[in-house]
Amino acid sequence: MTTPFDPKPPRRTLLGSLRASFLTGLVVIAPVGLTIWLIWSVIGWIDGVVLPLVPKTIRPEEYIGINLRGVGVIFFLVFTIFTGWIAKGIIGRSMILFGESLVSRMPVVRTIYSGIKQISETVFAQSERSFEKACLIQYPRKGIWAIGFVSIRAKGEVAKKAETSGYLVGVFIPTTPNPTSGFLLFFPEEDVIELEMSVEDAAKLVISAGLVYPNGKDPTTPPENL
Predict the structure, then answer these.
(1) FRET pair for 138, CA 20 to 30 Å: which of 31, 42, 206, 217?
(2) What is the rounded end-to-end Cα distance, in angstroms, of the chain?
(3) Cβ density class 84-99: b for 16+ within 10 Å, e for less
(4) Residue 159 three-state SS
(5) How far apart are CA 214 and CA 68, in angstroms?
(6) Other Cβ atoms within 10 Å of 76 Cβ, number
(7) What is the pLDDT of residue 139?
(8) In what order do the strands lie in the sheet with 168-174?
(9) E-state strands within 64-206
(10) Cis? peptide before 177, omega within 30° of 0
(11) What is the mean pLDDT of each run of 10 residues along the chain (226 residues)?
């Protein structure tokens, strides 16, 4: 609430207004422009790699006379889907196992292949393995709270040899601002407090270092029931 005795805010000059409008416009345009540029560049890169491998007789440019951007992406998607369909069958799995057995005998190649395969499985297999819930845990000591992501209950040797009376829960503790790196820790189930916010909202909170709070009514304030 303002009163007649409150000092008047300084009037913004024309240059200040133009500067504020420019920064606001930059905030709006930059994400859109960079996204379009990145997608356009990736499409062009895929075209440059894939199209030289495609026979000229089936390239659209041979019939319409125009080099359409994105044709290589379509060929790549069709080839990838076809390869995945073959790999799910008995013949495809046998061929993959035979190829990997050959690669495992090559000292340098097997190291490169295994590393790339692990990265690919981690990045592209998220549809089958994903975090279940966001949670709060006390880490690195009691009294300090951190956001984590519940992965799965501990199984096998980890669950048997851990000295605990109850279940152990695997929790991934991400780092800020890069949530792809972090620590996998096992906590007693009773020490893990599940949150109502979604995994996506919790990830935004971690990436933004707490600046983007998951509250639909007013992102700048905590929920009313806290």
Answers:
(1) 217
(2) 25
(3) eeeeeeeeeeeeeeee
(4) helix
(5) 42
(6) 17
(7) 92
(8) 182-188, 168-174, 145-153, 133-138, 193-194
(9) 133-138, 145-153, 168-174, 182-188, 193-194
(10) yes
(11) 52 78 85 89 89 84 78 88 84 84 86 81 59 90 92 83 83 87 90 90 87 62 52
Question: Comparing C-alpha atoms, which of 142, 111, 138 is closest to residue 192?
Answer: 138
User: Model-level pTM?
Assistant: 0.48
What token pair was written down for 123? 């990045």
- Least Cα distance to 208 among 174, 172, 177, 173 occurs for 177
160 belongs to a structural domain: yes
Residue 175 resides in a domain: yes
Structural domain that includes position 163: 133-207
Number of domains within the chain: 1
For tokens 């503790």, the residue is 173
Only one residue has tokens 């499985």, namely: 121
Q: Are 167 and 181 in contact (CB under 8 A)?
A: no
